[in-house]
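Re: duplicated header lines in exported structure tokens

Our pipeline writes sequence and tokens for each protein into one text file. With two proteins the header for the second block appears twice in some exports. Here is an export where it did not happen, for reference. First protein block:
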Amino acid sequence: MPELKYTRIMLKLGGEALCGEGAYGIDPASVSTVSEEIKRVKSLGVEIGVVIGGGNIWRGQSAMARGMDRATADYMGMLATVMNALALQDGMEKIGVVTRVQTAIEMRAVAEPYIRRRALRHLEKGRVVIFAAGTGNPYFTTDTAAALRAVEIDAQLLVKATKVDGIYDKNPKHHPDAKRFACLSYLETLNLKLDQIMDSTALTLCMDNRLPIIVLNLWKQGSIGMAVRGEDVGTLVH
């Protein structure tokens, strides 16, 4: 068994991780791929919490631009994250990974309510815990929910898994000369104002609690395993 630098992590996924090549919806093949990657990391002996966004189902920013109330749009986004959490739970349990979904908004017919001590017990028993419905409050992103839950469960690392292999000084899709950072401080990351990577509230919460963040490519097989072993992968914010 390889030596681990981090034994309990919070994995933050965007809802787009589940939609495959499509712009919206849930693609079973993508759910299966993500589930297999989580299983590989868990097999190393890592305790894993997961927060997943809802952008593949509902984009609150678009609705707000057309006049919807911000709080209403945010609550609808929270419900979208629950749908994604249930889909991911189904995908992982099909491959033998025992999983629990906890929601910040109570809906006992489909998931447990979020209770910190119960979540810790699940992790200690080797279960993957998916935290859904954000923080339960409007005006907070799922990035902030991931940072908050990570601090609450005493995670040693927040892994932000995206479609790019780290933080760049400009968009690498549009700028071939974009520079990837291997390491940044919290303040440097805040000053770069890279809202597409992580919002300032989440970054500040991590900074205040000295929780390191690694931004990496979810689709590069083994990248999360490299991160928990402390190997050079993605961009480390600390």
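Second protein block, exported in the same file:
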Amino acid sequence: MSDQVDRHDLLIRFFSQRAELGQDQWYLDDSTATEFVARLSQLASLPGEATTAAPPASGDEFEDLRSEVLVCERCRLAEGRMTVVFGEGDRSADLLVVGEAPGYEEDMSGRPFVGRAGKLLDKMLAAIGFQREEVFICNVLKCRPPGNRDPLVDEVAACRPYLHRQVELIRPKAICAFGRFAAQTLLASDRSLTHLRGGTHEFLGVPVVVTYHPAALLRNEDWKRPAWEDLKRLRRLYDEAGGREPGGESA
């Protein structure tokens, strides 16, 4: 598969999601069309592989939740989003990855952790034995904050029930929280990332390890060594909790 995101695939995924929302017609004026084409062209040059979302399954609680999230208007972020980023991966995964919020690339593609940060996340997971498709990846917020600003308190509060339900349905053996907002939301804490790192926490009875967001590691390589220590702790807790051996049977 090409290392470039395919524009045709992007269009299919974008309009498929709009169709799921009940929108069968989409009108563009000159300015909107110009902006959309420009953004799509930019995204097409980003690294990463495109995937097609699984079709909805009738009566499936997970797909019911996804359908609910796709039409969510609980906060102001619904007004400016291009797509809802529900999450992707193995819905019965023993490892759950939680980030902060969609960025520009995620908003355009509907996928969490794409672009350079996504590539680094894939490498971080591979370092402890996991392929991306073996875990489930999502964010605290399902819609992009304007200009990638920090999430606001009411936005986090509006999205938090969705994250709760994802954890309940996936039932992971371990969770890795990437970044301060993910950690603070999961742990209902206002402590800094520095204070939350290095220990073991719990969310809905599931052990949680906190570490730096891949985007932060791209900005500061000095954090890569402590992040590696966090990942080793995550794998150890995962194994102790009986997580499945990646690509194999239960540990």
